[in-house]
Every structure is written in structure tokens, then in C-alpha cells.
User: Which sequence fits this backbone?
């Protein structure tokens, strides 16, 4: 564990942004998430780690109700954003998703220009009152996602024509552009080189000052570097959840220890 | 003799032989294995198949080709029988003096054509007459003089004889008939020989090491190649059958006179013999009024079908619950299966009177009109447009929807801003295909668009009756009277020919658009 440089940052806030209690997810008859309780603090980076197929993405999608789009998926339990039940029938899903943004595991740029991809959210939410303002939002979002320099000369080129890693950053820029209160990032660096990864991590750190970020990652080092809280999932169960420092140096559950030392996965 | 060697009988014999070959081949293979089946290279079943296919395929292919080609060959044959100095073809002295050389050539060519088609019909008539038992071969041989009574006799027997019959024509027809009968016997005879040969050779080839499995694969592959070639050949054949008469028509009437003519008024002129005072055709055969009617109706139909079909597709693929979808989709598909004649009746008895009641009979003098046909054709196209659009909308990856919804877009924002732009090329393709169907559609317009036989100019009133390309084709080809020597009938081929190219062009366009669209997500 010596290669893991734990950041000795204090948790920014202890105010709870999202709380999940007794969350269950079923895909048809498959029980994918089993009774998970998690609190996501405001102004904090929370990392979800765990072996492939353990339900990290599934749980992440519960937090902005993206599982609604899957016909066979059924979510049970109590998930609250700022104390409000997000699965309440009265809740406006559109507003919820504007507040809880998401970067998907597979990059999914729209078949539109790079500019239009990033401007998509601000346009539908009316965040810019004129073209110059919109230009400003697009530029700053692309800069924050560390892709500005690569695309500034071809903002009119289609987003689908970028490389895999560039598409991933474009999707990050797209999500950042709507200034969500919570940003859910599903393996945002899986296709990035070390330099772009470092830049995205910097972005995450910067976002933490105002928002809360949840990041799914397969890199223990990354979890250790960017997060203050870590949740370890295994076979649909939340095995252990606590301060990142504690999880990586002193895990309570033997399964957590085996996973972070590379023995199960 | 000729009774046995006709196509159906030979097909039956070959089939029986092939089935027998399967069982014989199998048992021979088992016998060759000497009890140890593993010593065979191929399974006994495969040996059986090899014999069956070797018996069946070559002989059936030959039969097919023979049936297709014998018409062509006898055409060539009859052409060689008719020499230019036949008394029937000779120009009159007066014609030779008054006409230019070029005109003489055209005259000669078209009277030759007429003579040949007359001889062909006559040969068919004589054959039918003999088949009916109304005359013996010897009697036919003896036919010489009294040609006019001959024609009446054939007609009375129910045979078709169009032109007057001359002695020269009778001679040619008799020769042609003999030739045709020989062809009709020779083909099946050769096919039978092939079958027996294949049967015997493949049975003898069976031994332990014979690679029947590989041969069977080869037979099957060959057959598949043949089947797909046939599909293409059919298109070629269709095109060929309408191209020649169309070209004759264009040469006779003038391509541009046809294409830009503003009047359609057939007068029954004979090909090659214009009846107008200045040697031009009295029949006015302009394409414009007909294609105008066709396009006008197609336009109205698309105006109805595209919004309805597209919205239905969007609703079904993006908004409907699985339950609604499972009810509505089959319902739409049933709508697509309704025969167009039923739509035509609906247009004629329901929509037409309804429209007339709404707009009044000053604007809409008849119940048949552009709107009547167009609206109903639009309804017919709704399921077509919706199912094609549904396909392209469903081809937009779910990740696009997730991306948009995940940014806080509403479902309708997602549809208008992401899904429709992404699916647009495919939807345009669907619309073009629908347009091509609307243009070629026949039954609805025959019943609901109007049945004028003469039109001048372009009808602008959407509630007025029009004439379309397809209605004219139906009317002339199913109508009484004019034979294929009439310029009006030739014009019909030109109509079909032009229609073919218009729809072909539209389909190619649609295909290109759709193909371009496919590349987007690959
Ligand atoms: N759309 C779906 N339909 C049915 N089952 C699903 C669906 N999506 C996920 N699952 C199942 O739910 C379980 C959890 O999947 P999930 O995608 O959440 O895993 P994950 O932890 O994100 O894995 P990875 O690290 O590979 O992305 C898996 O067993 C998977 O098979
Ligand atoms: Mg995942």
C-alpha cells in the first residue's frame, strides 16, 4: 500500500447531500443491489470501488433515477436529496437530473458539433442569456474538462469524430456545463492517458469546493488520490463505507482488504 | 409423343427420380461401407442427397432456362423467316414515289413488325385450334385459299386473330408453329436425359472415399447463387419487356413530344400510319398531365402520411408503455396488410362523398378527386412510414437518450433535439420510399382519382378529378379494342417505362440516404 498517496484533506463538509437507506435494485428477477445505506456528503468526493459487475453503476444510476429508463429495473428503498425523497411521485425527474448530473461509463457524445454537445444542457435550461455568455460557458467547461486545447480550433466538428478519450472528456465538459449540485462520474478516466487523468482529477478536486462528486473507479490509486470517502461494493452489497484513509490503511472487513490488496476482483 | 414430353410431366418424372435417387444413393453408400459406417468419407445421407441433387438441379435448371429462352429463340427464328421482299411488305408504287427514303425505311420496318406479330398470333391461334380438336394436322397443311373464312373459323373457335391473314403470313405462321412445337418437345427431352444421366453417373460414383459432403455443399451453393441471379434477371427481364416497345414509341411519336406534351387524347392511330393531315399522329400522348395527376396525389398522400406516421412512430418508440406498444404496433401492421382495393372502395364510397358534402359540389363536381385518392392513400401509407421510422428511431442508441435525459432534458426535448436529428436521414429515406410507393400505387387511384380518358393541361383544383399514369395503363391494357399495333398501346409501355425509372431513382436515393445514416454509429 506504499504507492498510495493518501491526500490528507479534511472532509469539506459533514452536511449530508444525498442519503440512501435500504436501497434495493432488481433487474427483472436479478437482485443487483442489496439493502445499501450510503450518505453522500456535500462538498466531498465519494469513491465507489468494487469488482466488475458488483453494482457500482447500478447504484450510481439510482441517485439521479437513470434506472427509470430501463424497463426491467425496479428500485426500492429511500433515497433523499437535501432531505427530499427523489422517488416520490411528485418529484420532477427533469429537475432532479439537472441538479444531479452524470458522466456515463461509455462516452456518449451526441451526433452534433462539439460546441452543440457542450451547449446542450445550458440551452435547455436557459443558463445563458446571449451567445457570448453561452460561448463563455462552453469554453470554460471544455477547459475544465482538459480538452479545450485539443478542440478549440474545431468546435464545429462532430463530437462523434473525437477519439475515445477525447469523447470521455467532452462528456465531462457537457455534464459540467449545466453546473449540477452533484456530479456522478462513472469511470470517467477509463480511457484517458496519465496526463488527461491528472487533469480530470484536478477538475474533480476543484468541483469539490462547491459540489459533491461521486466517482466510480477501478483504480485504487485514483480513489485514494481524489476521494475523501470510499464505499466498497461486492456482489451487490455495500461491504464497507468510511473515510478513504481508513478504508485504505485499516479496512475493517477482510473482503475490503483482499480487494484493495488485489486478491479478489 | 409430344403429350408425354411437356414441362409438367418431365418435372414430375425428374422429381420422382430424384427422390428415388436419394434412397438408392443412401443404401448404396451403406452397402459400400461394408457394415462399417466410419469407413465412409461422408454420411450415407449425404450420398443420398448428392444423387438427388445431381439428378434434379441440372435438369430443372435447363428446363427453366429453356422456358425462358424459347420465346426469344422463336422470335429470332420468325425474324429470319420474314425477308424484306415478301409481297406483304412491299411498298406501293405511290408510296415509293411520295415518301423520302427515311420514311420508306420506317414504313417498311413497322409493317415488318406488324407482319411478324400477326404471324405469331396466327401461329398461336392455329395451335389452339388444333388442340381444341377442330382440325387435324393434315387439314392445317391443306389450308390455302379462302383466307377470310379461315380467320372467321379461328375466331369462332375462340382464338385471337388480330390482323387480316395473307397467304404469306399463313406460311410463316405454319413454319413458326412447327418450330415452336419442336422446341417444346426438345427441351423436356434434353432435361429428362440430363436427369437420367446425372442419376446414373452419381449412383455409379458412390464408393467409400467419394466426398459426397463436399459435393452436396457445392450443389447447394450453386443453387443459391442461381436463385439470387434469378431475382436480378427478373428485373432485367421486366425492363427488357417494356424497353423495346417504349423505344419504338419514342422513335415513332418523338421523345420530347411525349415527355412535354400537355395533352393526353388517344385516337387509335396504327403504329407507322399516322392519320393526321400532315403525317403526324392524331393521338395526343403527352406525359405531363398524367405525371402531374400522379405527383399531385402522391403529394397529398405524403402530407397526410408523413406527419401521422412519424408521430405515431415517435409515440410508440419513445413514449408508449410496453403494453400500449404491444397493442398498437400489431394494429398498425394489420392496417398495412389491408389490400389497396379495399382502401379504394373506402375512398370511393365514404371519403369522396364526405369531402363533397364538406366543400360543396361547385368546387368538387365529382366524388373522385385528388383529395379523395390522396387522403386515402395517405392513410394507407401511415403504417408504412411509421414502421420504417420506428426502425430508424430504434436504431438510435439508448446511450443518446440517456445522455440527454441525464442532462435534465425532458423526453420531448430529447426527441426533438437528439433523436430526430440523429434519425433524420433514415426518416428522409422512409419518406422517399413512401413517395415511390405513392407514385406507383394503382388500385386507389383507379377507383378514386378519376377515369377521364382525355385530359388537357394540369388540373390545379385539389378537389378536381385527375388522370394518373397508372390509371391510364390499367384502362388501356384492360380495355377493349386496340391491339398492340396501336400507338396508344405503345404509349402505355412508355408510361410504364418512365414510371419505372422515376421510382427506381427514388428508391436509389432512399437507399443512399439510409446507407449514409447507417455509417453514423459504426
Ligand atoms: N440493463 C440491465 N439489465 C439487466 N441486468 C443488468 C443491467 N445492467 C446491469 N445489470 C446487472 O446488474 C449487475 C450490476 O451491474 P453494474 O453495471 O452495476 O456493475 P458495475 O459494478 O458497474 O460493473 P463494471 O465495473 O463492470 O462497470 C450485473 O450483474 C449486471 O449483469
Ligand atoms: Mg459500471
Assistant:
Amino acid at each position: 500500500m506504499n504507492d498510495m498517496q493518501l491526500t490528507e484533506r479534511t472532509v469539506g463538509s459533514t452536511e449530508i447531500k444525498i442519503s440512501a437507506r435500504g436501497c434495493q435494485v432488481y433487474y427483472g428477477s436479478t437482485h443487483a443491489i442489496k439493502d445499501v445505506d450510503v450518505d453522500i456528503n456535500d462538498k466531498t468526493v465519494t469513491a465507489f470501488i468494487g469488482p466488475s459487475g458488483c453494482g457500482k453503476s447500478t447504484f450510481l444510476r439510482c441517485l439521479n433515477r437513470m434506472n427509470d429508463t430501463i424497463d426491467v429495473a425496479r428500485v426500492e428503498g429511500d433515497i433523499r436529496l437535501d432531505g427530499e425523497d427523489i422517488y416520490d411521485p411528485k418529484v420532477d425527474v427533469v429537475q432532479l437530473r439537472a441538479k444531479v448530473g452524470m458522466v456515463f461509463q461509455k462516452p456518449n457524445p451526441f451526433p452534433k458539433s462539439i460546441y452543440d454537445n457542450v451547449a446542450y444542457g445550458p440551452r435547455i435550461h436557459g443558463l445563458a442569456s446571449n451567445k457570448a455568455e453561452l460561448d463563455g460557458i462552453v469554453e470554460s467547461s471544455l477547459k475544465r474538462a482538459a480538452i479545450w486545447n485539443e478542440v478549440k480550433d474545431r468546435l464545429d466538428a462532430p463530437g462523434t469524430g473525437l477519439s475515445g478519450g477525447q469523447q470521455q472528456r467532452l462528456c465531462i465538459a457537457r455534464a459540467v456545463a449545466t453546473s449540477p449540485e452533484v456530479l456522478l462520474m462513472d469511470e470517467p478516466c477509463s480511457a484517458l492517458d496519465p496526463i488527461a487523468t491528472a487533469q480530470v482529477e484536478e477538475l474533480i478536486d476543484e468541483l469539490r469546493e462547491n459540489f459533491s462528486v461521486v466517482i466510480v473507479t477501478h483504480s485504487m490509486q485514483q480513489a485514494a488520490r481524489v476521494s475523501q470517502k470510499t464505499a466498497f461494493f461486492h456482489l451487490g452489497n455495500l461491504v464497507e463505507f468510511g473515510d478513504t484513509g481508513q478504508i485504505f490503511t485499516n479496512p475493517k472487513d477482510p473482503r475490503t482488504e483482499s480487494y484493495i490488496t488485489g486478491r479478489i476482483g | 409423343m409430344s403429350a408425354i414430353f411437356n414441362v409438367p410431366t418431365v418435372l414430375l418424372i425428374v422429381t420422382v427420380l430424384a427422390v428415388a435417387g436419394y434412397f438408392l444413393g443412401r443404401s448404396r453408400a451403406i452397402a459400400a461401407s461394408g457394415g462399417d459406417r466410419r469407413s465412409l468419407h461422408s454420411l450415407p445421407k449425404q450420398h443420398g442427397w448428392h444423387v438427388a441433387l445431381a439428378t434434379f438441379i441440372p435438369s430443372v435448371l435447363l428446363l427453366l432456362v429453356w422456358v425462358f429462352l424459347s420465346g426469344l429463340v422463336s422470335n429470332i427464328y420468325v425474324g429470319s423467316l420474314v425477308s424484306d421482299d415478301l409481297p406483304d411488305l412491299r411498298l406501293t408504287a405511290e408510296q415509293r414515289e411520295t415518301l423520302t427514303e427515311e420514311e420508306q425505311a420506317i414504313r417498311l420496318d413497322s409493317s415488318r413488325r406488324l407482319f411478324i406479330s400477326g404471324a405469331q398470333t396466327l401461329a398461336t391461334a392455329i395451335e389452339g385450334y388444333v388442340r381444341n380438336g377442330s382440325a387435324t394436322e393434315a387439314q392445317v397443311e391443306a389450308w390455302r385459299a379462302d383466307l377470310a373464312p379461315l380467320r372467321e373459323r379461328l375466331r369462332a373457335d375462340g382464338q385471337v386473330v388480330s390482323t387480316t391473314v395473307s397467304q404469306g403470313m399463313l406460311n410463316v405462321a405454319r413454319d413458326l408453329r412447327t418450330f415452336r412445337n419442336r422446341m417444346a418437345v426438345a427441351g423436356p427431352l434434353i432435361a429428362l436425359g440430363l436427369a437420367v444421366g446425372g442419376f446414373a453417373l452419381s449412383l455409379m460414383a458412390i464408393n467409400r472415399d467419394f466426398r459426397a459432403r463436399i459435393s452436396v455443399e457445392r450443389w447447394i451453393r450453386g443453387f443459391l447463387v442461381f436463385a439470387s441471379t434469378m431475382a436480378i434477371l427478373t428485373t432485367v427481364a421486366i425492363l427488357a419487356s417494356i424497353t423495346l416497345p417504349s423505344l419504338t414509341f419514342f422513335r415513332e411519336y418523338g421523345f420530347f413530344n411525349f415527355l412535354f406534351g400537355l395533352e393526353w387524347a388517344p385516337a387509335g392511330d396504327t403504329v407507322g400510319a399516322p392519320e393526321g393531315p400532315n403525317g403526324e399522329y392524331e393521338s395526343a400522348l403527352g406525359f405531363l398531365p398524367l405525371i402531374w395527376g400522379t405527383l399531385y396525389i402522391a403529394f397529398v398522400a405524403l402530407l397526410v402520411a408523413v406527419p401521422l406516421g412519424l408521430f405515431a412512430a415517435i409515440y410508440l418508440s419513445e413514449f408508449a408503455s410496453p403494453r400500449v406498444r404491444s397493442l398498437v404496433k400489431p394494429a398498425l401492421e394489420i392496417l398495412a396488410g389491408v389490400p389497396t382495393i379495399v382502401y379504394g372502395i373506402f375512398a370511393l364510397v365514404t371519403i369522396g362523398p364526405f369531402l363533397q358534402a364538406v366543400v360543396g359540389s361547385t368546387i368538387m363536381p365529382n366524388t373522385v378527386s385528388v383529395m379523395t385518392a390522396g387522403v386515402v392513400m395517405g392513410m394507407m401509407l401511415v403504417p408504412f412510414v411509421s414502421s420504417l421510422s420506428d426502425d430508424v428511431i430504434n436504431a438510435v442508441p439508448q446511450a443518446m437518450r440517456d445522455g440527454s435525459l441525464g442532462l435534465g432534458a425532458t423526453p420531448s426535448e430529447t426527441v426533438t433535439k437528439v433523436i430526430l436529428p440523429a434519425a433524420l436521414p433514415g426518416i428522409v429515406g422512409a419518406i422517399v420510399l413512401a413517395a415511390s410507393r405513392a407514385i406507383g400505387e394503382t388500385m386507389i387511384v383507379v377507383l378514386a382519382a378519376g377515369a377521364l380518358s382525355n385530359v388537357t393541361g394540369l388540373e390545379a383544383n385539389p378537389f378536381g378529378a385527375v388522370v394518373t399514369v397508372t390509371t391510364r395503363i390499367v384502362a388501356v391494357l384492360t380495355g377493349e379494342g386496340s391491339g398492340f399495333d396501336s400507338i396508344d398501346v405503345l404509349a402505355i409501355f412508355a408510361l410504364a417505362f418512365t414510371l419505372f425509372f422515376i421510382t427506381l431513382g427514388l428508391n436509389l436515393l432512399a437507399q443512399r440516404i439510409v446507407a449514409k445514416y447507417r455509417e453514423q454509429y459504426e
Observations:
- Residues 290-521 of chain B form a domain with the MetI-like fold fold (CATH 1.10.3720.10).
